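Forwarding the complex inputs:
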Amino acid sequence: MTDSKYFTTTKKGEIFELKAELNSDKKEKKKEAVKKVIASMTVGKDVSALFPDVVNCMQTDNLELKKLVYLYLMNYAKSQPDMAIMAVNTFVKDCEDPNPLIRALAVRTMGCIRVDKITEYLCEPLRKCLKDEDPYVRKTAAVCVAKLHDINAQLVEDQGFLDTLKDLISDSNPMVVANAVAALSEIAESHPNSNLLDLNPQTINKLLTALNECTEWGQIFILDCLANYTPRDDRESQSICERVTPRLSHANSAVVLSAVKVLMKFMEMLPKDLDYYGTLLKKLAPPLVTLLSAEPELQYVALRNINLIVQRRPEILKHEMKVFFVKYNDPIYVKLEKLDIMIRLASQANIAQVLAELKEYATEVDVDFVRKAVRAIGRCAIKVEQSAERCVSTLLDLIQTKVNYVVQEAIVVIKDIFRKYPNKYESVIATLCENLDSLDEPEARAAMIWIVGEYAERIDNADELLESFLEGFHDESTQVQLQLLTAIVKLFLKKPTETQELVQQVLSLATQDSDNPDLRDRGYIYWRLLSTDPVAAKEVVLAEKPLISEETDLIEPTLLEELICHIGTLASVYHKPPSAFVEGSRGVQHKRLPGSAGSGETVESPDTGSAAGVSDAPPAVIPSQGDLLGDLLNLDLTPPATTGPPPPATSGMQLGAMDLLGGGLDSLMGDESEPLGGDLGGSLGMGAGFGAPSAAPAASFSAPVSGGLDDLFDLGGGVGMPMGAYSPPKTVWLPATKGKGLEISGTFARRAGVIQMEMTLTNKAMSVMTDFAIQFNRNSFGLAPAGPLQVLTPLSPNQSIEVSLPLNTVGPVMKMDPLNNLQVAVKNNIDVFYFSCQYPISMLFVEDGKMERQVFLATWKDISNDNEAQFQIKDCHLSSDAASNKLQGSNIFTIAKRTVDGQDMLYQSTKLSNGIWVLAELRVQTGNPTFTVCLKCRAPEVSQCVFQSYEAVLKN
Amino acid sequence: MINSLFLISHSGDIFLEKHWKSVISRSVCDYFLEAKEKSGDPENVAPVLQTPHHYLISIYRGKLFFLSVTQTEVPPLFVIEFLHRVADTFQDYFGDCSEVVIKENTVTVYELLEEMLDNGFPLATESNVLKEMIRPPTILRSVVNTLTGGSNVGGTLPTGQLSNVPWRRAGVKYTNNEAYFDVIEEIDAILDKSGTTVFAEIQGVVEACVKLTGMPDLTLSFMNPRLLDDVSFHPCVRFKRWESERVLSFIPPDGNFRLMSYHVSSQNLVAIPVYVKQNISFLETGSCGRLDITIGPKQTMGKTVENLTVTIPMPKSVLSVNLTATQGTYTFDLTTKAVLWDVGKLNPQKLPNLRGSISIQTGAPKPEENPSINIDLKIQQLAISGLKVSRLDMYGEKYKPFKGVKYVTKAGKFQVRT
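Prediction (whole assembly, two chains):
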């Protein structure tokens, strides 16, 4: 009797019948019914309607029945979440069972029920199972943490399961260690920046011990995890290598390849003169060769990886050329990979063998393979100069076979050989010309035409040959058309007398009858060149060509380094970095090979030297945007006036707030402004000291002044009062929904030389708010509160309060994007809130920003034109004088004015709080509402912001 | 890790699916079927495919595709090894790994897959552990089960899962204690037209059948271990002992297992047991050709070459062949266009010969490619590398087991170019 009996149906309707059987009193009948249900499920039939009936069978002593019900549950719980709850009690009970198999089975199955509601009930049993006395249960529970994390990551973190999992790395049982590593690695993949697998010499030692004793699969997980570790020095690196080397003799090829990865990576740190280094190199070859005798699928992955290894360390396999010889019955994907590696390994020593093989392959059946083989011969010629002659004669032999696609491929590669070794093999041109008619592929035709054009002076009937191509000019592909055009022009320049007609014909075909812009453009260029200056044309068209490179399609070195770190993974099969194809690659870390440990004394070969140079590249001075959040969260919320250790951020906030920038805190507590962000150009020294905190209190009492008043001042006063700087209307920065009822709207203004942050705090919650404090993240111009946030009375519900916070510019500096972005944290008795806002850069224009005329002139000339930026301001109905006045209100000073052809040119200067000067030319045409601003600045990054301020000031 | 598994017949019918995480629609297989369609021969489907959201890693075994789907970066070799393990397990349980057999045992297959992988992590892949939990179906057992209501799922914790020797279960008992080892070597070689060796290597394995009571500790030593410079071992072999003393020391799994595989590369001279004199030619006109093949013994170390077969895949334009064999019989398969010559035993006194004419489709041009000749053969009582077991010792148990070693040499991918 076989399981196929479970598929037989009766006329009554299968589901109906199964339902009856599931509710039967007889145990045996029940079991058979569940089996039938499972059988239907496996073939994709929907049996979810039987959910309650199947779940009812769960409470049983029969292990097989229980397992079958579990199988069913896992499959259908998602579609019936409410029903799935019914099963919870049995699970919880099973987790207490004296039989560890049952305990493990229960915790394993619970994790597979991907229903949110169940996860809450899972926590307690899981916690117990993680500490179970039986390693089998612990090992299963470790995997369950990964499952749970997949369903509800937050829950896993809140419940502290990650820490328990980390503890399991030190478990006494190697299987538990392996599973804990596997689970952590999987979790870490969704949290790329988290430091879940905190590798230090102690944990490494534990992993290496477990490595020897756990199953083959566990070994893979552990080895992959080891590969992420960076040893402290070459000695540690060597000792790890020594302990990993025995894995090279494992029967499981995945273990072997993972071990190869660890060794390839750690080998970078070993000095090359070390004996062990040589031993290790020798040890790597046999396992790689053995991988090639496995099943074809394994061979394929191995070959893709060997391709990388050969590029990085050709010495490992240089004597193993023969194992890459293609066998008749290899699958095509293996054949093509082998061929690729053969070319990479080709050298003067083995070229004869390789060529003989390649010639053999060129007579095989598979067209793709044959083509690649012919190309490979050409690549050998280019790579190994001594072999070039033999390669060319082999190619000629192949052309003699007259097999169409062989001939075409041969001609394409011969073209490259001509380019690599000019004036050496032109004697074969005659043979090539014989095959002109059989070429029907564009690439081959183009190659042939190139050859004819290039060697037109040696081919007696070159004009005839090219003319024959010209007949069907419009039917050719673009590639051929372009090549034909160039070739005929070359021919004309070499033999002007006979070919005038031909060249005219092709030029008119290309320029007048063609729809292809590339072709037309090239045609016109040649035409004009030829008609204006034939000598110049000769120099251009017949110029000496640069030599083509020896090795083709080598992987770029930094990518290669990264791929070496990913040996054995999908990345190594695709030869692409994981960030290029892994989904949600937002935070995939780029891996790098460790630098060689060789200090000044050890002599390094140039290749390690350069590798180390690349990998040791200093980190960017400006941290990337992604790190900012972490930085902001580490800010303390006490006003900067008080010094003292910052309070630790609340645990909820710590989420993802890894202290990536260790310096973040220090700099905040630090006393002086930091020398960071020097690329802003100007010095950070504070010009007139106007930003000093002492100036702040006076202004902080002033009530917010309406914008209208400023305008009045501007219009009436003409001469800009320092008070009259433009201030944008308030906008909502922190909506009440995100601030737990606290709404903050605000704006920035500059009054009496002091930057003010003006905010309206509104309490939209039901409770009183007190204890307000404010803190900024580091920002581009070092903005920082000059005093504490003055909210003296508690803020009752539905009450609003206007606050004005004086700012200075002596805070820590970090370049932001956009430049004028400011990240703010506001604290009250309820929580801490974060928001970001953009301040108009005109707040930073200082009062002494008027430049001397002479200085302006000199500076304008001095700043290179690359730093010039031009903008247009549309719909601005102001006269040049009015504009000048308005701008002066915001500390943009007009230095000179010129009128040319009814166009007013205003020359203006302004100075930023950090000492950067911005020079401007404002062009105003009477009657034309579009102004043109031309900005010149030594730090061109600010131009965009300055322009925005221009626009904002002029339009308000 | 491994998300889902689909079993697909070579005609493209998805007949079983299993998911270890959330369910992935079987429409994901369309990408694979498309690739399969494109590559023509099922053996030529690339084993790793990328789709917009998933990666498909597949193997082709016994006219079946085992297709696994993953969503994250995983080591593809790990997946491929695992898939082969799944196929091995089916083979082990049902004696065959084919669509019919799998369909007949769906529930057992499902139970097995559930035990082998948890959340995409391998759980139990050792056959002795699996067999303790899920008993393989036998006719007798299914009869007994139906009568007594017994189950074929074990209720105890498989002991092997946890011990330091997970490959062996405790409490093994035999009345006849025996340990047999087969040294099997396969020659992979490419010979060119003139008979010179282009490439040759030996792939060797030591297969063991150990049925010993208790926890025996075995030591197997060789006369000439220096031959073995490239080896892979079953996890039971103690690597340290091998490194220092060149002996295989191990606690064996129970039953059949592969103790070691090794690889003797072309640097050490590989003996080629036969030579082939051949001449296959096609006439420029007249759409016919000639074939003449003679095989003779070369380096057989005095042993007899048996089970000799010769396969010649002919060009597609060949219509029929008319040949005479001095020994054995030949067939011509019209669909694959392969000549299969079953020679049998090679008699050094009277060399077998196959000759005759080949007819080609009228009007078809002379074939471009040269057919290559694939040879299969077997030599009993010989390991062609010269490897010899010197002794087998047992420690840890008192009884005296029966011991035995067999040698056999076969042709692996042995081909002669024409």
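The longest strand of chain A covers residues 742-751.
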